[in-house]
Specification:
Length: 413
């Protein structure tokens, strides 16, 4: 295991040396780290499964997700819904629940006999979108800006909204007893409420205090960056201490911090990139670590052979189970048919799915744990290929056709 850790550290150093070269070759950093992680797993990962299934590994993964959720929340520009309120609200209130329901139904059909709580865990793992490995899609100027921005805002909220449901489903799945449903639901609701309070209070207060301290010149640029890094960690620990959901707390803290930090900054509606650089780098570094582990874990799944049922489920999750709810959510909106289809196809899976999958692997009993891990690998690896190579070309064609096509009656509403 020590050899695998050393190789992981070395891989990130190698990536840092050739990151610009990889960008020119249009190779995403996470993809390169996945490949090197798989090679390292093949050479040094004999006991990787045992080390992943530990309390320490679980806490590390949880903290990584908390940091990423905080960063996602602070990156939303032009208000809470990024200036695309109607589109994003539809995607989050109709598209996301619809995708979770359709994915759960597909899991029930393709995995008969699997407990409903495990089905819900699987749906929560493979449904949230994340552009960590497909960031190039958000920078592609051939795609209309409102489509790219809506997708970016939607993906930022997905993880935070799904995490309470994931925690609830995982609690029930661990118990495997009907009488645990009530207590688990009550616990999840209280945990979410506590998380919202902790996140809003700490995030908002620190945002306002940093704004005041910055205006009165009480802090340095370095201390500001360090202070921001500590916020998601502080909020996560506090929420856990009060039996709250650390993920939700970190996400809400990011929103509240941004609001408090910008409260008196009327001339600028965005946070200074320099002051967010440390937490951004920490989040990205954490993501690279997750991607390396994911690459190594692929070797574990490969040893079990090909599971065509899970592969079929993964393909459905990346296409039909995403596109249909998105079309339903955006029907009658200002977006044309091609743009709606493009948003449906532009639903990459990334760091959040990997983290949720690893947490499920750690918490569930062995057969269901392996199922969750295998499905996570299928969906995320399939997304890296599909959304990295195939989907961008389809999306550009669809949005180009949409811009040239006349609007339908529904599109004018």
């Amino acid at each position: 295991m020590h050899a695998l850790i050393v190789s992981g550290l070395a891989v990130i150093v190698v990536w840092s040396l050739f990151s610009r070269v990889l960008e020119r070759l249009r190779i995403a950093g996470p993809l390169a780290v996945i490949v090197l992680g798989a090679l390292s797993g093949l050479l040094f990962g004999e006991d990787l499964g045992e080390h992943l299934d530990t309390d320490v590994a679980e806490k590390v993964v949880e903290i990584v997700l908390a940091v990423l959720l905080f960063v996602d929340a602070t990156e939303v520009r032009r208000g809470f819904l990024g200036g695309e309120g109607r589109i994003v609200a539809r995607l989050l209130s109709i598209g996301l629940p619809g995708a979770l329901i359709l994915t759960s139904l597909a899991c029930m059909l393709l995995l008969p006999g699997t407990p409903w709580a495990v089905i819900l865990v699987l749906a929560c793992v493979i449904t949230p979108t994340d552009f960590a490995a497909s960031a190039g899609m958000l920078r592609d100027t051939r795609i209309p800006s409102r489509v790219r921005h809506s997708l970016n805002v939607e993906s930022g909220y997905n993880d935070g909204l799904v995490s309470p449901l994931f925690i609830f489903a995982l609690a029930v799945a661990e118990g495997q007893e009907a009488q645990r449903i009530g207590p688990a639901l009550e616990s999840a609701l209280w945990a979410s409420l506590i998380a919202v309070l902790v996140g809003a209070i700490v995030g908002g207060a620190t945002g306002v205090m940093m704004q005041v301290a910055h205006r009165k010149n009480w802090l340095t640029a370095q201390s500001l960056r360090i202070g921001i890094v500590m916020i998601p960690l502080l909020v996560y620990v506090l929420a856990i201490q009060f039996n709250g959901n650390g993920f939700v707390a970190a996400f809400v803290a990011g929103i509240a911090f941004r609001s408090g930090r910008l409260e008196h900054r009327r001339s600028d509606s965005s946070l200074d990139h320099a002051e967010m650089s440390a937490v951004d780098d920490l989040g990205f570094l954490s993501s690279l670590g997750v991607w390396f582990v994911f690459g190594a874990v692929i070797i574990l799944a490969a040893e079990t052979g090909v599971n065509w049922v899970l592969i079929a489920l993964g393909v459905l999750a990346l296409t039909v189970l995403r596109v249909v709810p998105v079309h339903a959510a955006l029907w009658g909106s200002a977006l044309r048919w091609g743009e709606r289809t493009a948003i449906g196809l532009a639903g990459p899976r990334g760091t959040a799915s990997v983290v949720f999958g690893l947490l499920a692997f750690n918490a569930l009993r062995e057969d269901y744990a392996n199922l969750a891990l295998y499905l996570t690998i299928v969906v995320v690896l399939g997304s890296v290929v599909f959304h990295g190579v195939i989907a961008p070309r389809m999306i550009v064609a669809l949005t180009h056709d949409a811009s040239a096509a006349p609007a339908t009656t529904a599109d004018k509403n």
